[in-house]
Amino acid sequence: MFLDWIAQLQLLQHDAQTDILSVLPLATRKSLVQAITTYLHPPQGHPTPDPSVFSSLAHVKWFMEVIGQGFTLPLEDMQITTDDITIYAQWLFELNQRPKAVREEGLEQEFFQIIFHQYSLLFEPRGPKPVAPSNRPTSTGTSVQNVAIPLTLSLGTPGLIAHTSSPGLSPAVVAQQQREKNAILIQRHQELCKKVLTVFAMAGRTLGPTFTKETWIVLLKVVLGITDYLLSDFADGYKTPYGKEMANELCVPLLRVLFELWLRSKIEDVELWNIFKKCFRRWTHRAPVIQQWNAASLALTQRSIRILYGPTEGTDIVNIMLSGTSIPLDLPDEFVLYAWHRTLYMIPNPCTLPPSNFFLALQGIGRDQKGPLPSPPDGNTILHMFGEWLFEATYSTNRSPQDQEAQLGRAEAFGILCRIFSQTQTRNAFLRTYIERFYVALAVGLRSDSCLPTILANSTKLFAVNLEGIRMLLPDFVVGVKMVLPRLATDMRLSPGISLESLRLSAMKICAAIMSLPNHYENVHLSSGWDQGMQPVGDILVGAGDQERAVTELLKVLYIQDASDAKPNALPTLKRYILEVLVASLRTEVSSYNLRMLLHLLNVYAVQEVYFCPGLAATIVQIIQAKLMTMTLPPDVALNAFQVLMDLVHLHEYVKRDSKNTPRELVLALCRYVNTLLSSGNLTTNYPLIVSAYDCTIRWVLAGQWIVDDHDCCTAVINTISMGITLPERGSDMVASIDVQIDKKKKRETAFPPPKQLFALQNRSKQINANGLDANGVVGGGLNKSNPGFHRKEELAVKLAAEYCMSQFVNQLGNFPPWRNETGVTRTSTLFDDLKHIKTSREEDPISKGEDEVTHIEFYIIDGRTIISIVDLATAEPVKVDLHGKLNTATSAEPRFLLVMRDTTGKYSWLLESRYQELKTKATSRAKDSTDVSTQDSSSESFSVSMPQLTIHGISNSNSPATPSSPCDNIISVKAVNEDQLPTLDELLEAHADSMALCGLIRTLADDQQRMESAAIGRAVDTRSHSISPSSLSHRDISTRHGYHMLSQLGFLSLENRDRIIPLKVNDNIINQLRTLDTLNDHPACRRECVTISVLYSRTGFEDPQQIIARDNAEPDSFRQFLSSLGWMVDLSSHTGYCGRLDPTFCPSAPYYADRHTEMIFNSPTLLKIPTDQTTDEGFPNPLQLYQRICSDDFVCVLWVDDLLGYRRLSKRLRQTSNLLPKAMVFIFVNPLSGKATGLFWVRIVIPPGGHFAMIAAQRLADNPLAFGPLVDGMIISQHALGVLIRNTSLSAHQACRVVTESYTRPFLLRKQFIDEFYHRSRTHISTSDLFTEILTHS
């Protein structure tokens, strides 16, 4: 006795011995069922019958025959049905409640099957009984006869429950009440059906292990028959008046229970699976059916992945998750693979489904195909399974373009195909048939507004795989990108679920992947009509103004020369379109994240194209400058823009070649930028931008010598830096000081008009000129002193940055690398070690030169910020200094000093000599004409004027000092024009006045004095001739300490400057502190940032770290060339720069790079040479331990990987498992492309989670992947730019890692902090007499 539809499906056959009560009238059956049900399930408080009443199987079957009729009762009798459901549930799950005969005779399986059969009867759709017409009079006295009562508004035509209408109610009210009661009855029936489905599911979970195969088959056929009866359009249940409503309500629970029981049964009966497939395809017009299939197939796929690829992939159970419910199934591996195969092929061709289900089906296929795998399946295998459906879906000729859901499904098909073809094929290449069909479909899809977003989002890897003929699609992708960037095409509409920001980001990632390809495939021709459907950037910029259109024309001109050398209609012509897109998008983009992405792309594009496109570097600098000067960029974008400009400093030679004024205009613009921010009064927000602007400004100022001859620009830079230095000190007197500056500048007229802006400036109430003055003459528009934004912390940060810029400006301009420095840029500080010289002096004479007895070296602190040491070289054994800082014996008669200065920028030494040279001027002839005091020629005894000859360490001034002039040469005699008209003294005095008498007396006395002196001289003259000769005392006969002479001549010993200088006693404490200053950050005179980067080679991502380290020189030549491109190889035994933890005993040479601000050393196990005479038993570490020690502080690791399979796993193992790189947070993978793409490299950047070091910091960095650059994940780079870009990205990533771990401090701040502390420790309050006594006597 079961649902008749099950028999019609030929799943089960009716038993003639059952259903014997169905011939009885309904009233009789109801009375019988009610009586038996009440007996077996009495009301609460009454005892239940003893199970022993069922003494035989015949008794049990008779009772069950009666109970089974309860599932066929009308809706009005559902209370009886509810009790029957409860009785069967108790018999199933409570063993002590089961009939005695069933337990004793072992008839549980037949017993279970009967229950399942009869439960199916409940799922027969039914409605309420119809209501008979009533002739009862209404409240108004009239009678209502044959009134048609409106039925329920739900699907079907339900009747009404017979009742006695309340008097006085209108027919409409009565009908409404009846509809509400009918709805309650129908809902109650549906809830009972759901309860039975729950019983089915619980039976499978709890009783399933005890079921025989026959019982499982019966249960599955019953549930399958019920599902098909309600969900199939052809079934009788669906056609009944109430069937559709019931099917819609029970669809989800029916499918959930069916799939759970089917998989839990582990059934492998082919015929039964075929019936399931046949029935399933009749339900696919319903969306929940496709969703349930998606969930089941995805769960089986994930479990199969675990079986196929190991414990690190997939899931360990089949977990079906849908609509917030989870069904975990622990199934055997063999059955999982079998069920996975059968389930995947259960769905029909998605193109035959309704539009909504068409999209859902393809979405499910896409989820099954998604997910990175260590060894992805063969692409041909997937295409054999789904390829026909997918290609047919991409064409979709039978679907209307206005059908949104159909277009979503089509786009999903494109996404699946792009992901399939983006997988690297390790076994067999894609069949040519599939490739051709894919290219044809893609060329159409890239011009479809509904499919383009999905294609762009899933094609970033497409050009990195060795796919035959992929370069053919490059023009089509350019067309597609220009439909999105810089603005959406006018007729393009966004698909639901895709934001404009994400779409534009996908287009930028495509640009990152294709920007290097035109140069590589320069001989490939473009087909005619390739640009069909491409929107021109210039037309879009028309509405933005003439300046933007000028930019577009400028970009076209840039490639004219390059295009003339190339073949017409060749692939390199696409470079202009790519650059147009990037530049125009920089103007239209509003997303901060996308703007930062664009800046990275422009940075990379400039480095790659600077050799091929004259004018490009200068143009990009001008574009970024113009964008900055709009003053509208968010802070994070502005910081990124400054970083890009600082990276482009390395291209300053190309910038100068292209446009000599570009560096000048950029520096002036940055000065205006800083002045504007300083005037805003909001330092709390702006101080990071000011610091970065200062840093960027000084880098461009020091790039070459261009600013030396530009007095006006130099003045503007100094004024801007001075504003930052005096920011905390400026107060009420600032306006007055600026007024003075205004008057001077008006007289000199040195204001610089801002350069022509490529982007429109934001309207501001006050316009700031190039000198930082507004119309009112106030710096940057004036400071709001009441603004609470002026805080001490921010002011100090700005002041420190400005002071460092000024120090660099005066110390580094024209002095990098140091002239005639044999070590080049490896050292920016002096090689002379004054502290070592003190130690050597003590060792040579330990008795006379104790701790405080070194008299020829003096130390002072000047202004609390500079520590100087004066080494007096005029000793008993004169010495000189060679280029390597060593003191060698020499002869010298003049006072000579070696001045060593330590400040925040480093340590410098100057060699000074005080020379007394003869004058060879007109003094001799002048002496002859005057009264001679000697009887000999005085030309040999001219005045000796002290002329110090200044010699920079390592530099000898080839020009002799100019001969000074005699003081007499400076006396100028001038005859007045009206000299004859000048009155004499006698004319001025009155003739008989007292003044005339007094004047006469004075004249008389003067004449007498002259006569007396002449007489005395005449009496004292000897007959011998006399000559004037110099004193025999020379500087050899006096103290050899001349340091105070120099200090005095420099003005430091004047009384007004006595507080500026503090003498230091040379003792062990002072020497140790200075040694610490020189060795900050493990680098002598650490003015620059020192970075170590790990560089490894791996064949695949599956290699063990031990294999990676112990290579035995097995690396390819291409890797060694890459290693050399990161820097220049240095011999560590003679290297004077930063070495990290490398030592020449096990690493003779290593790649090294240095510039004005950074030193980098690259650690690679390829370069390690462990001595053969050293063994691990003697304490020398093995290669793995040695490299772990070397790279223990490396934040960034660069890995050259021939095969990227498993590269993410490798990064996790290197950081977490092996502990080889405990601090590494960023892994940059370089994958050389093979085949026709030789010379191109795919860059993948991974920030693995977890690890023992800075877990939270690593997550912060992973959430902000654009925090460093210029390379971003997924870029394809040409070989000629690979080394530079990897080096710049590694440095930027290293700085980002230190920032997020809060361990980054700029080197000059470390030195400044130490010097400040040293100054406060050494500062003493002594009297003026004691100060001069200590300086002069060194006591």
What does this structure look like?
This protein is α+β, with helices and mostly antiparallel strands and 1339 residues long. 47% of the residues lie in helices and 8% in strands. The protein contains 48 helices and 18 strands. The strands form 4 sheets. Strands 12-13-14-11-15-16-17-18 form an 8-stranded mixed sheet. Helix 44 links the parallel strand 15 and strand 16. The longest helix is centred in the N-terminal third of the chain and has 37 residues, at 171-207. It is elongated. Residues 921-931 have a biased composition (Basic and acidic residues). GO terms for molecular function: GTPase activator activity. Residues 1079-1318 form the Rap-GAP domain.
Distance from first to last alpha carbon:
121 Å
- What structural class is derived from the secondary structure elements? alpha+beta
Major β-sheet annotation: 8 strands, mixed
C-alpha geometry: elongated
Q: Look at the structure and give the mean pLDDT.
A: 78
- The unreliable regions are 134-165, 538-544, 731-790, 876-885, 921-971, 1033-1040
Let me know the number of strands: 18
Radius of gyration: 48 Å
The proportion of residues forming helix, as a percent range, comes to 40-55%
Tell me the number of helical segments per DSSP (H or I, 4 or more residues long).
48
Strand content: 5-15%
| Widest beta sheet: strand line-up | 12-13-14-11-15-16-17-18
Explain the layout of strands and helices.
Layout: H1 4-8, H2 26-40, H3 57-69, H4 78-93, H5 100-105, H6 108-119, H7 171-207, H8 213-231, H9 236-239, H10 243-264, H11 270-281, H12 287-309, E1 318-322, E2 325-329, H13 333-344, H14 355-369, H15 379-395, H16 404-421, H17 432-445, H18 452-458, H19 474-482, H20 500-514, H21 517-520, H22 537-540, H23 546-558, H24 560-565, H25 574-588, H26 592-609, H27 616-629, H28 635-647, H29 652-658, H30 662-680, H31 683-701, H32 711-725, H33 734-748, H34 792-812, H35 834-844, E3 857-862, E4 866-872, E5 879-881, E6 887-889, E7 896-903, E8 906-918, H36 923-929, E9 944-952, H37 985-988, H38 994-1020, H39 1043-1049, E10 1061-1064, H40 1068-1078, E11 1089-1098, H41 1105-1109, H42 1117-1125, E12 1128-1131, E13 1149-1154, E14 1158-1163, H43 1183-1190, E15 1196-1201, H44 1207-1217, E16 1226-1232, E17 1240-1246, H45 1255-1263, E18 1276-1278, H46 1279-1300, H47 1307-1322, H48 1328-1337
Parallel strand pairs: 11-14, 11-15, 15-16
Antiparallel strand pairs: 1-2, 3-4, 3-10, 4-7, 5-6, 7-8, 8-9, 12-13, 13-14, 16-17, 17-18
Helix pairs in contact: 2-3, 2-4, 4-7, 6-8, 7-10, 8-10, 10-12, 12-13, 12-14, 14-16, 15-16, 15-17, 16-17, 16-18, 18-20, 19-20, 19-25, 20-26, 23-25, 25-26, 26-27, 26-28, 27-29, 27-30, 28-31, 30-31, 30-32, 31-34, 32-34
